[in-house]
Design a protein that fits this description.
It is built from 14 helices and eleven strands. With about 350 residues, the protein is α+β, with helices and mostly antiparallel strands.
Length: about 350
């Protein structure tokens, strides 16, 4: 199935600008059943890699040894909003391993949660790395380093054994060789992985298969992570955010995780598929329309579920006076194999 996808910014009856979208739908064996024309493009996995970065911590038994709860697993796979609930979970993890926020290498950014943002504006002394959307992942990495007897210092660097294991794990789950993974530095200072979009989708299809069927130690660990994320979607991102709302609209049937620069990954266990959706220009504003319409086009979402996501599917454009002067709309077309010229 061949897809074409874009998101238009409509101002009145003017198509003012457009965001090109790439999409791949792949199963656990790597067979791509639907794709746009550049689904093999290499792009950065960003925070959508978090379930795989958490995987060896669970797979090696460290989550059990530390007594991690489902909410704690969810926050370790999260790109959270910095709410008070998010902060409490991360702080609790750090307390249990005898560390504090000063050990986090992720840096500070303003929280997306409105209450927490007001907290730090009222008292700037509160500002610190706990508020970073990746602080849960970093707390998990610190716990992992301690459990393995690795140095805590420099845990975020590529040459640290923890990050080398992250690289191998992401490569294995996405069915690529580690030496083909392109590398950079993520916004939170750990390595970021460049992988073809269709192989990202294959990795999420493996989550979908493990979530549905279980299996060996790795499959059971992926299943546990998927269940934690879908049981606690607000912890994974936060109220009003796309991945959280997708999981809630599907009543936990879909697992969704966003990555910066216009990326969204979805695991659908009922079909055993993974979906990777990327806005080429990195525009996060286009992700809601692109995601909902791509999911509808490939049959991974029901119209009733999509109706609950209309704020994401058709986000308004406001002018400086607060008036609604336009909206974003996706255009997704499907061409079946029999429609494609030989």
């Amino acid at each position: 199935m061949r897809l074409q996808a874009q998101v238009l910014v409509q101002r009145g009856d003017i198509a003012e600008s457009r965001h090109r979208v790439q999409c791949a739908v792949t199963d656990a064996a790597g067979v791509t059943s639907a794709a746009t024309d550049d689904a093999e493009r290499v792009t950065s996995f960003r925070s959508a890699a978090k379930p795989f970065q958490l995987l060896p911590f669970v797979e090696r038994g460290h989550a059990d040894a530390l007594g991690c709860t489902e909410p704690e697993l969810a926050i370790m796979a999260a790109s959270h909003s910095g709410s008070r609930e998010h902060l409490a979970l991360v702080r609790g993890l750090l307390d249990r391993i005898g560390l504090d926020a000063s050990h986090l290498a992720c840096g500070y950014h303003d929280p997306q949660d409105a209450v927490s943002l007001e907290d730090v504006r009222r008292d700037p002394r509160l500002k610190g790395p706990l508020y970073n959307n990746c602080s849960g992942k970093h707390a998990g990495m610190l716990a992992f380093a301690i459990a393995e007897g690795w140095p805590v210092a420099g845990y975020e660097r590529l040459d640290h054994p923890l990050q080398q294991l992250m690289l191998r794990t992401v490569a294995e789950c996405c069915a690529v060789r580690p030496d083909t993974v392109r590398l950079g530095v993520d916004g939170c200072s750990v390595p970021v992985f460049g992988v073809p979009l269709a192989r990202m989708a294959q990795g999420y299809a493996r989550i979908a298969e493990a979530w549905r069927h279980g299996g060996d130690t790795r499959a059971r660990a992926l299943q546990r992570i998927a269940r934690a994320m879908t049981a606690h979607p607000v912890l994974v991102e936060g109220h009003g955010r796309l991945a959280t709302d997708l999981m809630q609209a599907s009543a936990g049937r879909l697992l969704a995780k966003s990555g910066a620069e216009g990326l969204l990954l979805i695991a659908d266990p009922t079909r055993g598929i993974g979906l990777a959706i990327k806005c080429e220009d990195g525009a996060m504003r286009a992700m809601g329309p692109a995601a909902v319409d791509c999911l509808l086009a490939v049959g991974a979402m029901e119209p009733g579920e999509a109706a609950a996501l209309d704020d994401h599917r058709h986000p308004p454009v406001h002018n400086a006076a607060g008036l609604v002067v336009g909206r974003l709309e996706a255009r997704v077309s499907v061409e079946s194999a029999r429609d494609v010229p030989a």
